[in-house]
Amino acid sequence: GNSVTQMEGPVTLSEEAFLTINCTYTATGYPSLFWYVQYPGEGLQLLLKATKADDKGSNKGFEATYRKETTSFHLEKGSVQVSDSAVYFCALNSGGYQKVTFGIGTKLQVIP
Amino acid sequence: EAGVTQFPSHSVIEKGQTVTLRCDPISGHDNLYWYRRVMGKEIKFLLHFVKESKQDESGMPNNRFLAERTGGTYSTLKVQPAELEDSGVYFCASSPRGYANTGELFFGEGSRLTVL
Prior knowledge:
The complex is a heterodimer.
Chain A: E1 3-6, E2 11-14, E3 19-21, E4 23-26, E5 32-38, E6 44-50, E7 56-59, E8 62-65, E9 75-77, E10 86-93, E11 101-102, E12 106-111
Parallel strand pairs in A: 2-12
Antiparallel strand pairs in A: 1-4, 3-9, 5-6, 5-10, 7-8, 8-9, 10-11, 10-12
Chain B: E1 5-7, E2 10-13, E3 19-24, E4 31-37, E5 43-50, E6 53-56, E7 65-68, E8 75-79, E9 88-95, E10 106-107, E11 111-115
Parallel strand pairs in B: 2-11
Antiparallel strand pairs in B: 1-3, 3-8, 4-5, 4-9, 5-6, 7-8, 9-10, 9-11
């Protein structure tokens, strides 16, 4: 079956530091890949996505590239802000009416 | 436009009691999903409605869980009787018709269930 593996964290960074959150996956077929983010007191929201190999998803300064050869979709940001403090979930979907499969979530805390 | 709303935000019950969680999806969204996150674990799929029909309920843990979506609008998830391992955060998500194969979901804030 499908699965997503990501670092559990928590990850604590100083403001303006570089962020990488690793994500690898196992899936049948050619899944679409996602990063969802949950800010404190809010529901999950889609941060970015990529639907095929070598696609790069980007939003709010975050980027992730769909790497089929390494089955990875690592999330990066060059300079984090305090407002980026949240839980980040890597996820995949195999299309059709397939359920979305989530990773465990990585809590990020950015300190001033 | 109102987002996905869930009620209650937090429920604390004794083992053996019954709890009903409610989800109001974004107006007009045909697809409605329930997910659950047990502490320290992944967010796990429970089931998927398309309008009032259950499209996929393969993630429902056992027959103590009952989900309904009468009229294809709001949905309820009842746990009866509740057990300790049912504790967690129950997320509802919705999406418009045609989005079911995209993986893009609009989530509510979740209902935290604590079973003592």
